[in-house]
From TrEMBL:
<dbReference type="Pfam" id="PF02737">
    <property type="entry name" value="3HCDH_N"/>
</dbReference>
<dbReference type="InterPro" id="IPR008927">
    <property type="entry name" value="6-PGluconate_DH-like_C_sf"/>
</dbReference>
<dbReference type="Pfam" id="PF00725">
    <property type="entry name" value="3HCDH"/>
</dbReference>
<protein>
    <submittedName>
        <fullName>3-hydroxyacyl-CoA dehydrogenase</fullName>
        <ecNumber>1.1.1.35</ecNumber>
    </submittedName>
</protein>
<feature type="domain" description="3-hydroxyacyl-CoA dehydrogenase C-terminal">
    <location>
        <begin position="409"/>
        <end position="490"/>
    </location>
</feature>
<dbReference type="InterPro" id="IPR006108">
    <property type="entry name" value="3HC_DH_C"/>
</dbReference>
<dbReference type="GO" id="GO:0070403">
    <property type="term" value="F:NAD+ binding"/>
</dbReference>
<keyword id="KW-0560">Oxidoreductase</keyword>
<dbReference type="GO" id="GO:0006631">
    <property type="term" value="P:fatty acid metabolic process"/>
</dbReference>
<dbReference type="GO" id="GO:0003857">
    <property type="term" value="F:(3S)-3-hydroxyacyl-CoA dehydrogenase (NAD+) activity"/>
</dbReference>
<dbReference type="InterPro" id="IPR013328">
    <property type="entry name" value="6PGD_dom2"/>
</dbReference>
<feature type="domain" description="3-hydroxyacyl-CoA dehydrogenase NAD binding">
    <location>
        <begin position="10"/>
        <end position="189"/>
    </location>
</feature>
<dbReference type="InterPro" id="IPR006176">
    <property type="entry name" value="3-OHacyl-CoA_DH_NAD-bd"/>
</dbReference>
<dbReference type="InterPro" id="IPR036291">
    <property type="entry name" value="NAD(P)-bd_dom_sf"/>
</dbReference>
<feature type="domain" description="3-hydroxyacyl-CoA dehydrogenase C-terminal">
    <location>
        <begin position="191"/>
        <end position="288"/>
    </location>
</feature>
Length: 498
């Protein structure tokens, strides 16, 4: 087994595309003798030139010295054939996501490299066990999944298949660290960690617009302003491309035997089939042409703000919002004033039935997340429009207001609970350690908190309650709580505790 910190470590990379050249760049900067091979003989040379240009830009930005760039470039070379990788200590395959192609490459590598050479695949979703299935020495094969663009993304998933030897995982983790990445050890599961765990953020957002609860602009604004995500789910899908995220979502859903918690919607498929792939085609969930007019997530109605309101149930944050907006909180219902509530997991319909209040005057406000910039209000069918608008204008005096249709858990509660629940499920099946799940999701997807950290910030008992309410109201096992979450919620333990 190789020493990842050895001065004379020799690395081979197969595939000179964006991923292969990115891996080559961070390896060379990490002091590793790196040889790049591609089936297209000219692609290898083009790849090395691209690496040189990227490194030279680092000199222009003052992030590397010219001497360091020349030293890194000197460590790079092109292999004309796979046989030229015979002396390598480790080889990373980074070619097209095709199982037959990858199996053929690994078969050829077994004929070429020494018995002590480790073989890794940069696949983003194909099972490592399947890639290694026809190999004689499966113990030395693992996944080493980098993220694009490799020089900027610090995470690398080291994927442990059923036959992978522990020392191979240890060596590849050390190699990742030498390349300046943060390694996380992951069990060989469809989508691995990040591509599996990332499904909840987008699929629950898709469910919200499928149900007519909100628009993409409203969902994105809420997740940015109230929950601290850098990008809303629809912005993110348009950026990565519907041709990328739809097939991955479908693959993960099918691989988990159609678990409803991973289900997407017909609109997601329709965009793919229509060629509306996001920014790359000028249209996805949003329009990107010169004449495109961004939709506002803000509700502005311009009626008279409510002067008096009644709180259906005590809620300190809601009372503070009302006071800040300058309205009087009545102690008893006068039969006219808007009725305000801050439900957890309930929709307005269920809340009205449970409490017996007049649904026509009921307006629910989500106070569970950050309300410093935006508040979300929702109402039941049949609501009095004047009453609803008076509350919107009241809160609009102090915050941006997003008004949505009736929903079990508003927008943020639903999406955040589903993100947390899937994180708990990953912990339950032993995909990775709880702390590594959180680390990977923060680094791989730029989440403000990992899913288990998010559960703990919301409180596991409340996350569990949101999911139970949503499951009861909709009758959909999509909201089935993970047993990991249920047990910790009932016992009063943190979600991240083993």
């Amino acid at each position: 087994m190789f020493d990842p910190n050895a001065a004379q470590l020799k690395l081979g990379i197969i595939g000179a595309g964006a991923m292969g050249t990115g891996i080559a760049q961070v390896a060379a900067v990490g002091g590793i003798d790196t040889r790049l091979h591609d089936a297209d003989a000219a692609a290898g040379e083009r790849g090395l030139q691209q690496v040189r240009k990227r490194l030279e830009r680092q000199v222009e930005k003052g992030r590397m010295s010219a001497a360091d760039v020349e030293a890194a470039v000197a460590r790079l070379s092109v292999a004309d054939a796979i046989s030229d990788l015979a002396d390598r200590d480790v080889v990373i395959e980074a070619v097209v996501e095709d199982l037959d192609v990858k199996q053929a490459i690994f078969a050829k590598l077994e004929e070429t490299v020494s018995e002590r050479c480790i073989l890794a695949s940069n696949t983003s979703s194909l099972p490592i066990g399947a890639i290694a299935a026809n190999c004689a020495r499966r113990g030395r094969i693992a996944g080493m999944h980098f993220f694009n663009p490799v020089p900027l993304m610090k995470l690398v998933e080291v994927v442990r298949a059923l036959d992978t030897a522990p020392e191979v995982v240890e060596a590849l983790s050390g190699l990742g660290e030498r390349m300046g990445r943060t390694p996380v050890t992951v069990k060989d599961t469809p989508g691995f960690l990040v591509n599996f765990g990332g499904r909840a953020y987008t699929t629950e957002a898709l469910a919200l617009i499928h149900e007519g609860v909100a628009t993409p602009a409203q969902v994105d604004a809420v997740m940015r302003d109230c929950c601290g995500f850098r990008m809303g789910p629809f912005e993110l899908m348009d950026l990565t491309g519907i041709d990328v995220n739809y097939p991955v979502t479908r693959f993960v859903w099918e691989s988990f035997f159609n678990d409803p918690r991973l289900r997407t919607t017909p609109q997601h498929r329709a965009l793919r089939e229509a060629g509306r792939l996001g920014r790359k085609t000028g249209a996805g969930f949003y329009e990107y042409g010169e004449d495109a007019k961004p939709e506002s997530p803000d509700a502005v109605v311009g009626t008279r703000p409510a002067q008096r309101v009644v709180l259906v149930e005590p809620d300190d944050r809601l009372a503070e919002l009302v006071a800040e907006a300058g309205a009087e909180e009545l102690r008893e219902d006068d039969g006219k004033a808007p009725l305000l509530a801050a439900p957890i997991g309930e929709d307005c319909t269920a809340l009205a039935v449970r409490t017996g209040v007049d649904a026509r005057r009921l307006v629910a406000v989500d106070t569970m997340f950050d309300t410093s910039r935006r508040v979300v209000v929702m109402t039941a069918p049949g609501v009095d429009g004047v009453t609803r608008d008076s509350v919107i204008d009241l809160l609009g005096k102090v915050r941006g207001v997003t008004a949505i249709g009736d929903s079990a858990g508003f927008i943020a509660q639903r999406i955040a609970a589903m993100v947390g629940n899937l994180g708990c499920e990953m912990a339950q099946i032993g995909l990775a350690r709880p702390d590594e799940i959180d680390l990977a999701m923060r680094l791989g997807l730029n989440y403000p908190k990992g899913p288990l950290e998010l559960c703990d910030a919301m409180e596991p008992s409340k996350v569990h309650r949101i999911l139970q309410q949503a499951q009861a109201i909709t009758g959909d096992d999509r909201y089935r709580p993970s047993q990991w979450l249920r047990r910790r919620a009932l016992l009063g333990l943190p979600a991240g505790q083993c």
